Amino acid sequence: MWHDVEATSDLLNFSLIAETAAGLIHDAGGQPISIGVSGSWGTGKSSLVKMIGTALGGKDSSGKPYLFVEFNAWLYQGFDDAKLALLQAVSDVLSDEANRQKNFLDKAIDFAKRLAAAVYRHPAFPFISITNHMDRIAKYGNASL
Hints:
Elements: H1 15-27, H2 45-56, H3 82-101, H4 104-121, H5 125-140
Protein name: KAP NTPase domain-containing protein
Organism: Paraburkholderia ribeironis
Pfam family, one: KAP_NTPase
């Protein structure tokens, strides 16, 4: 089978179609829209989709970023798990964007939760807990517990 490599330049004069599709997405204003791209193998579908992503320009009129999900369906042709792989690709992009938008405090809280979970799973956790209580008793007496 031939390798399917998207074109980096507009060899098929698809720029008008890509700009029109990007305009439709932009004009939808965040409302759901479906655009189908169909054709035989090698007709430029993947190249067109990449060109649409480029034509979107990254952000909408309100400054919110467009999230562009690339999914190569050819890799899953004939497999039952193609839908699952598509959902995973969408989930990965959404997760990356959510992590990108976190502020410092959110990241610190997530780190503290991961650290607490790691300490809790550590084999010496009961000892650590008892040791902490013994240190508190030695320093403050029983009233501080």
